[in-house]
Amino acid sequence: MPWGRVGSGVLASRSSADVVDAVDRLSAEGISVTGSRCDTGEMADVEALRDEALNRGTLDIWVNNAGTSGIYGPTASTPVDDFTRVVRTNILGTFHGSRVALPLFLAQGHGDLVNVYGQGDQGPVAMQNAYASSKRWVRQFTETLRMETKGTGIRVHGMNPGLVMTDLLDHVTSQAGYEQRLSALQVVVGLWGQGPEAAARPLLDLVTSDTPEFRDLTKATLVTRGLRNVLAGRLRRANRMPLDITVVDTNRQD
Question: Which CDD domains does the record match to this protein (predicted)?
């Protein structure tokens, strides 16, 4: 998502309907924003998004937050096209956005680039190798960019928002025979899940403060958030909302 310091932003999503919905909701709140469909796995789409932002003024903030999860299950039976899909969005999408924004930031001598981490950025996660490994890559990629842009006036941030209650968590795909292991996910989301608005708040601190980089959430912070959510009744509500799990037989020969 590109943004200018004048408060005008450009949103993007692979779904045109999602873009229209987000723009309508933000516009109703008095926020100046436009949007366009963009597949971050396609460099041409990301360049077009940049051009749309520049048509509205300067480009000062770029957020790479497009992400997708893979099929839950062991790597040995993970479909190749599914693993490739995760890499295309989470890794190539982050690279494309960074590659498009950084030359502009370097030319103007300032800019904030934000890359979003996720589960796995600190280490391996069994049964989620595609997603977890991609987020580990995003962390190292971001830390490398920090080194390369040091002293240029550009700030490269990494942000792990924690568990965010979106369709990525509500709709899960599992390899056949492993779907029962996902039953604990409902409890975890109930304990530590948060809405998109709360999850995005630290981003404001990144781009409005003088702090050179974002500090990851500590374990104490996560536990405190979990207790607060339980007291708010989020766990009880989540228990009445079963996960939408799609089971895929990865061993079937068509």
Answer: SDR_c
